């Protein structure tokens, strides 16, 4: 039995190093983005909430999607509400927060922004309408076109996300056990779903 396992592993290793893939792909192959077919353009929500502050907003590019990460510093679970809107409105005032691109994605993180009263922080995360990244820097990204701060009100924070068009997305929360940070993650696919 052990000899059969060794022969099988040796054969798999030879196939992979020769450029064949057994369905896993190789480093030089075009990535398969079929997993994004199961993402949504409908609303996605997580009912949690936290008094811990949002302290950072980051963006990154991947093979099949652009990623936004909202860092919530603290141990309490947080929640989110993500949906496409005709326009994103600032919480409290209702002022429109325009974005670049042909679609506006509203991301509500159910945590206050850094600098909001009661968070134990004084420096604000951003001012209403502020861009986290220059729109010119996002112009050639696959999905993202702008990321703006709409405001923090009654313990939750709203972001206005400009998207190239209404593309599928997924949203989830990841708790980094080492740092204690809860990360609200929104991934936006580069392409429309091929299954309707």
TrEMBL record:
Superkingdom field: Bacteria
Keyword entries, A-Z: Signal
InterPro entries, per the entry: AMIN-like
Protein name: AMIN-like domain-containing protein
Signal peptide: 1-29
Pfam families named among the record's database cross-references: AMIN-like
Domain annotation AMIN-like: ranges: 54-189
